[in-house]
């Protein structure tokens, strides 16, 4: 069975819903969703330069966190358009926390020079953003189809002209004049991640298979403080950075402060710095976690601001208010992804990408906290504007189905990526990972894992969240972005270098 729409958006997170909402008035748009992605899980908030804050200060903090590797023009679009997008979200009914005088309550997170992170329900920001967007999209009459996209359709002229969706064991083709990937990150390609299970990098594999390029795939962010539950696989509960923003500190097993003296912003240093310091402490002490001490914060502040974190703690029998809680880093966010321009266009006609799956260069080598929901709002709208003004005409003619392969031994793939492409990497391990992955086919997880590993092996320096023990410093000769494409055997390989800032 085949049906046809103007635009298919794959993914129902902040990016996909923002794109769909922007398109709803003028286009026949269909959202395809394999379930909730990371958006409803987001805790800390949305960063936006509101009320007296200068977007250029936000841009500065973004670039510092990104290790100077951000695309300055796209960062400017992010910080300058962000406040307006947030205001529109509020107009759509999103309820953010407010101060007694009615102004938006703003908090501090790692890497931010001032409090600019707005939040909802204390630490349930993503759920509120998702609720508001979903109801606006429903009101606008957009249909959502629940299923997994397992392939793209490409015309002989080289355009993406549709998708293949699996629902209830059947694969259906849906023709479209444009396809927008909004499939989120790659969390499930690792053994343990803060991301839910639907987020496994399918969009990366779909884009590569269609001939698109990836960029910055070596920059995988590990959140410093996932709650250590004793489980080393699956989705780990997050302890938002905003807890440290309110004054919590990290301690080792002896009670010593981990971040004191390591960075001018101490516990609020950028994420990569904190995650590496925790990793080094755990290696030194042979421990599986460190401790987060929030006991210096008033109990009523913790209860009001962090109900989600308190509930996660209660599930494992610890209490954020009265005792230190065990935390460890976990995979959290992909800074790179499918290479796009500022309007979401990939290098394959008819194929667009937004949100975490896309690489616009706004995160550089390490994402600034709470810039990701903002990215979805801003770039989701940008792609909608582009496709409102200039939708490709439908082209009749022959087309090819580009179905993803099945993954062989997914747990082994996850274990390889986790072992060799974690916080600390080296050339020998990364080369071993490439060899081991070669035996595991070209399914989506293997493709995602290989994309990360080949980029990490090629980059012989350390910056942002890519850290190599054999090349521990920044090397200016590597001030270039690595582009990954499929080789003749259908495997991701580094194909091109781009000068810094031209992501
Ligand atoms: C625990 C946690 C806390 C976070 N806290 C914050 C925060 O405070 N502030 C912030 O800015 N960011 C935060 N982030 C990051 C942020 O939530 C994500 O980067 C962002 O929500 C990604 O949005 P997205 O729309 O790109 O993708 P997602 O919200 O991940 O949505 C992806 C969508 O794609 C769908 N999908 C994937 N593959 C397929 C397929 N093959 N077929 C069909 N559908 C598919 C999924 O089902 C899902 O609907 C957090 C992330 C996590 C996990």
Automatic annotation (TrEMBL):
Keywords: FAD, Flavoprotein, Oxidoreductase, Pyridine nucleotide biosynthesis. Pfam families: FAD_binding_2, Succ_DH_flav_C. One of its GO terms (biological process) is 'de novo' NAD+ biosynthetic process from L-aspartate. Residues 412-489 form the Fumarate reductase/succinate dehydrogenase flavoprotein-like C-terminal domain. GO terms for molecular function: L-aspartate oxidase activity; steroid dehydrogenase activity, acting on the CH-CH group of donors. SUPFAM superfamilies: FAD/NAD(P)-binding domain, Succinate dehydrogenase/fumarate reductase flavoprotein C-terminal domain, Succinate dehydrogenase/fumarate reductase flavoprotein, catalytic domain. Its EC number is 1.4.3.16. Residues 6-373 form the FAD-dependent oxidoreductase 2 FAD-binding domain. Its main location: cytoplasm. Belongs to the FAD-dependent oxidoreductase 2 family. NadB subfamily. NCBIfam families: nadB. Catalyzes the oxidation of L-aspartate to iminoaspartate, the first step in the de novo biosynthesis of NAD(+). This is L-aspartate oxidase. It comes from Kribbella sp. HUAS MG21. The lineage of its organism: Bacteria, Bacillati, Actinomycetota, Actinomycetes, Propionibacteriales. The gene is nadB.
């Amino acid at each position: 069975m085949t049906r046809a729409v103007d635009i298919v958006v794959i993914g129902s997170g902040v990016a996909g819903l923002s794109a769909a909402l922007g398109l709803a008035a003028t286009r026949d748009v269909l959202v395809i969703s394999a379930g909730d992605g990371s958006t409803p899980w987001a805790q800390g908030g949305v960063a936006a330069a509101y009320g007296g804050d200068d977007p250029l200060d936000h841009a500065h903090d973004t670039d510092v966190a990104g290790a100077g590797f951000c695309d300055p023009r796209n960062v400017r679009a992010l910080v300058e358009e962000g406040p307006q997008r947030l205001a529109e979200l509020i107009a759509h009914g999103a309820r953010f926390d407010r101060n007694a005088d009615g102004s938006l309550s703003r908090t501090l997170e790692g890497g931010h020079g001032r409090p600019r992170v707005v939040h909802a329900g204390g630490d349930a920001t993503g759920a509120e953003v998702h609720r508001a967007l979903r109801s606006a999209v429903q009101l606008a009459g957009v249909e959502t189809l629940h299923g997994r996209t397992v392939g793209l359709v490409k015309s002989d002229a080289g355009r993406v002209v549709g998708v293949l969706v699996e629902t209830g064991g059947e694969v259906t083709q849906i023709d479209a004049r444009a396809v927008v990937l909004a499939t989120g990150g790659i969390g499930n390609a690792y053994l343990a991640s803060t991301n839910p299970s639907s987020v496994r990098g399918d969009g990366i594999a779909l884009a590569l298979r269609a001939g698109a390029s990836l960029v910055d795939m070596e920059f995988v962010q590990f959140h410093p403080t996932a709650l250590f539950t004793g489980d080393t696989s699956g989705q780990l509960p997050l302890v938002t950075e905003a807890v440290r923003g309110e004054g919590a500190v990290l301690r080792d097993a002896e009670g010593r402060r981990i971040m004191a003296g390591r960075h001018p912003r101490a516990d609020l240093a950028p994420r990569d710095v904190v995650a590496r310091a925790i990793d080094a402490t755990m290696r030194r002490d042979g421990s599986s976690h460190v401790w987060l001490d929030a006991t210096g914060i008033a109990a009523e502040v913790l209860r009001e601001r962090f109900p989600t974190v308190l509930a996660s703690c209660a599930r494992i029998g610890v209490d954020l208010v009265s005792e230190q809680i065990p935390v460890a880093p976990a995979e959290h966010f992909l800074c790179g992804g499918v290479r796009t321009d500022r309007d979401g266009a990939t290098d394959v006609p008819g194929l667009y990408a937004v949100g975490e799956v896309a690489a616009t260069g706004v995160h550089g080598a390490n994402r600034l906290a709470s810039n990701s929901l903002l990215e979805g709002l801003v770039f989701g709208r940008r792609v909608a504007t582009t496709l409102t003004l200039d939708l490709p005409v439908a082209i009749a003619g022959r087309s090819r189905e580009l179905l993803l392969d099945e993954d062989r031994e997914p747990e082994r793939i996850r274990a390889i990526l986790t072992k060799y492409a974690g916080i600390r990497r080296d050339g020998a391990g990364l080369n071993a990972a490439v060899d081991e992955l070669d035996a595991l086919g070209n399914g989506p997880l293997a493709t995602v894992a290989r994309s990360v590993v080949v980029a990490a092996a090629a980059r012989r320096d350390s910056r942002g969240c890519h850290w190599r023990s054999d090349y521990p410093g920044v090397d200016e000769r590597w001030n270039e972005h690595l582009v990954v494409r499929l080789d003749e055997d259908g495997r991701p390989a580094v194909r091109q270098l781009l000068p810094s800032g031209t992501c």
